[in-house]
Amino acid sequence: MVRMKSTCTRLEPFGRTAAMIFALGMLNAGARAADLPQLEHKDGRYTLMVDGHPYFPLGAQVGNSSGWPEKLADLWPKVEAVHLNTLEVPVYWEQMEPREGVFDDTVVEDVLRQARAHHVRLVLLWFGTWKNGKMHYVPDWVKQDTGRFPRMKTRSGQPIDVLSANSEANLGADRKAFVHLMHKLKEIDGEQHTVIAVQVENESGALGSVRDFSQTAQKQFDGAVPQTLLRALGKKPGTWKQVFGDDADETFQAWSVATYINQIAAAGKQEMALPMYVNNWLKSPRGYPVLTVPGDDYPSGGPTSNMLAVWKAAAPAIDILAPDIYVPNTARYRDVMEQFKRPDNPLFIPETHGFGRFPGSQGNARNLFLAIGAGAIGFAPFGIDNFSVTDANGKTNYEQIGLAQNYELLAPMADELAALQFAGKVQTAVEEPGLAQVELSFDRWSAQVSFPPAYTESADTGGLSATAALHMGRVLVAQLGPDEFLVAGIDARVNFRLTPPAGEKQAQLVTVEQGTYTGANWQRTRLWNGDETDAGLNFKAPGSMVRVRLGTY
Ligand code: DGJ
Prior knowledge:
There is one protein chain. About 30% of the residues lie in helices and about 25% in strands. By secondary structure, the protein is α/β, with parallel strands linked by helices. The protein starts with 14 loop residues before the first helix and ends with a strand. It binds (2R,3S,4R,5S)-2-(hydroxymethyl)piperidine-3,4,5-triol. The site of (2R,3S,4R,5S)-2-(hydroxymethyl)piperidine-3,4,5-triol has 7 residues, from loops. (2R,3S,4R,5S)-2-(hydroxymethyl)piperidine-3,4,5-triol binds next to loops.
């Protein structure tokens, strides 16, 4: 199980290049020793800095009703079994402010205490005005006072189960509670940094109406589109309808939700400027590219792929617009990641399927490697409560074991991974149906990755290892130096060759060291040779990590 690390001297992993890259970030180390977790951006890449080092959250999210001390206490054996370093836990407005202006911090204090005792970092999820396009987590004094805290109205004037984003009273009440939370965090976590990021609201936007048609909202809708938005989108002035035509309703709703959340986040950052993000219920049902209706098929006004530019203009206090990726295949997974990875937006995956069942999706363990390859700076499957190594019939659940293998393999190198990724040194390959081989190019060297079942044999599955049978082979290759690589994989084989044209030269493996990291230090456990290397480097389940020195003759 990975432990939070204090500052450590980085030895060789990727040598001097890395040291220099870090040096830039570390120049201020003295001044920033007690600095808050923060995002850094360099050469088009992002990383999350925690205690002065790049940090990769190998995370999971707890179930919606598991952010309570007693429930959470039951989950730690699963956290340990999955080898997480980060847990995402909700904070409920209804619990924290049961009566207006009266706050109960006992739960959040206990959540932090438990996380520290288990050496796990936290991402806190603020379940306030919005949760899955509804308002179910607001306190009862908000739910019951519909005069003071107005609901959205549909086109026909019906109130719905969603607070209006066009109401100062709603905004003021949520903001006050969120500021209280951030103030509390500053008080109890200002030095320790157990909490590394905060999600502001959950899958915001509205289910039940494309926008708010209340009188107040309608008046704004009939008015001029704000200059900030026009400038950001390069549009000419006009009313919402004139500027956005058929998309006016959804765009107006997105602007309203994003400006509301921006004000909450900005006020919270005044207390404690942790990285803040919003998560997104994808625009299409399960991510399929089909016609969908905002407010019907997905919450209207959330940070969906079609509204990212609006959100960026409206919500500068939000650092990341993050997709919750529940899609049925690898191709769609890649599409979604591409939509959300932008020069102005780090790719962070705060929710994805894995622990729960998801019809039609298998081999979820490959998604972490897909995400790392796409430059994700953090990853968290939803619902660790459902993690179990056996299924309902008592049979071994290799899908779940695959998820745990991922983190067990990568947890020791999580900090190195973040650093290598930030330096642009990491590529990955994953097995997909019908895909026999993938080639990863690193200038002079290429890594040919294949997924040969015969090489993952085990007696009980007739030649296939149980996890290989799920076709979720996965490999990460990181360049440590001109002729040196770190390779971590499961159910896959890797052959290095000289990138053509290689001329007269032949490639050779000089040494292949299996090992692991302890902190920043590489610990060799043995050398691979013979059957382990002759036909390629064979990474069988449950996975291994090697450092390879290459040469020519
Ligand atoms: C997405 C939401 O953001 C989560 O809180 C949870 O409700 C999951 N869906 C359930 O699948």
